[in-house]
Design a protein that fits this description.
434 Repressor (Amino-terminal Domain); elongated; mainly alpha; 55% helix
């Protein structure tokens, strides 16, 4: 039986990104000549879950993604998430530029 979760609908743009991630994981598996069953066994999850990951279905837990990446020897790829954060760095720089010095009390 499939569990249903409220509020799992993603904006279209994010759905597309999840599909790309799924395709990348599938390509990594195929390049290694591994079956869905083999990855499922190594990641200690079901073949159905691997299939859902490869289709980009957003309800799969991030921990399972990590186990699949580990099974593919790609676990360090998770460190690329939010690595650049150009907007965050720009906001930080902006805050530093506008920072005022504390007034000296005499």
């Amino acid at each position: 039986m499939v569990k249903t979760t409220m509020g799992t609908k993603l904006p279209r743009k994010l759905e597309q990104k999840m599909q790309v991630v799924g395709e990348q994981i599938k390509l990594a598996r195929l390049r290694r000549n591994l079956s869905i069953a083999q990855i499922a066994e190594r990641a200690t999850c079901s073949p159905v879950t691997i299939n859902r990951i490869e289709k980009g279905i957003p309800t799969v837990a991030i921990g399972i993604y990590l186990r699949v990446l580990y099974a593919l020897q790609l676990e360090d790829d998770i460190l690329c998430l939010a690595q650049k954060d150009e907007m965050g760095r720009a906001l930080q720089d902006l805050a530093l530029k506008h920072r005022e010095r504390a007034s000296k009390k005499g």
